[in-house]
Give the backbone structure.
Amino acid sequence: MSVRRVTLSATAIILCLSACKLLVHLYAGRYYGYFSDELYYLACSRHLAWGYVDQPPLIAVITWVIRVLLGESLPAIRFLPAVAGAAEVALTGLMARELGGRRFAQGLAALAALVAPGILAMHNLLTMNAFEPLFWMGCAWLTIRIVKTGNHKLWIWFGILAGVGLENKYSMGLFAAGLVLGLLLTPERRALRSKWLWIGGAIAFLLFLPNLLWNFQQHFPFLELQANIRRSGRDVPLGPAAFLAQEILTMLPLGLPVWLAGLWFFFFSKPARPFRALGWAWVFTAAVIIRVSPRIYYLFPAFPLLFAAGGVMWEQWLDGVRRPWLKLAYPALMLVSAALLAPIAIPVLPPESYIRYTQALHLQQPRVETHRLGPLPQIFADQFGWPEMVAAVARVYNSLPPEERARTAIFGRNKGEAGAIDLFGPAYALPPAISGHQNYYLWGPRGYTGESLILLGGEQRDLESRFAEVRKAGSVYHPYSMPHEHFDIFYCRGIKMPLSQIWPRMKQWD
């Protein structure tokens, strides 16, 4: 009965922390609009396929389901990411339980996942990153269960989860490879003799196969995209020390002792010896990301594993301490510091208040890309200006004679602009946009010849060399949007070469 009471109490703590995570995300974002990637995923959901230039198909399928069941409003499209965030908190606590943690360990692990600013930011938007941790940590949880119970049939569920995870984001393969390496480096390598592991691997491959075939047919556009990004220098360069410093900040500085204890648990704790493969999986994943593509959020999905192990380790260390208040004091400090940093991670403050707040604290979100910024960080700025941009384009389009409008295309420079036209445009009777950016390139010019074209941005002198007539017809500006989204709108006629012939030169995969 005593064990049962502790278990229920731990469950209540985990559920409470998960509910807090959900409520925070349901509240956040009311002062902001659609993020540029969300506009693009909405467009992809109208063109379901087995693959896209810059991602596997699952995010488009999820967005399609949301559109059908809940609609296209901001609260609708951000509901499932918020639920995924709450599930990540709960899964972190459950992993601590499977690793031998009791109430304190489970609560500390779930709390660390809740208050980490980087993880908090990932579930405020509809992106692949909101769901990625569930696949990584789901596979980690299954690995723990397999080691504990010896039930190798669970490798089938591992394969299903890994295969679906690959259809969400290719990085699933990196973490799965780390787990296999961890098995090879530990006595758990005996699992490789199990037929169930190989059956699970075959299932994962079969689930991933449709997207693999799509990539083969399209000559692997994702690899071309990644090569272009590296050549462009778009990503902020980070050395190993700078990368780890950013991880400490984005996982909450007071969370550092928790996840460092998690590493200690996997590599130096005797009770954790059967689970050491998970420690190697984390180290391998971190090393590859630092070496190949050190965007700070790429490692975020792996931290709940260390939070879970760290909670167990700290519980063991504090069991012999005669100051039980320590078990409450440190989590309380984590909550206070998280409350101070949360407005920097997620948009709970209006833009004006956010600017004043960050100036007072002398803190800003870490930069991921090298784009010139305005008063807001990129992830916030990319949520402003889209309805105003579409309204400006609509004024140009609807000023044309009806016969001219019927053959006029609207060309966006990037997926955000084109996606905004596709989402907000029908209210103004605008046609779907065309663009050479990402998957819009594969959707082609939609039958337009280019004889009448509205272009978002560009240089008039350059356009005059391609069209018989070019006139500036409007402009786009929003004080909080990204500076590169402040541009002129041009109306062009008399293209000198048909759009279908020059379309291959329109490709912009970056």
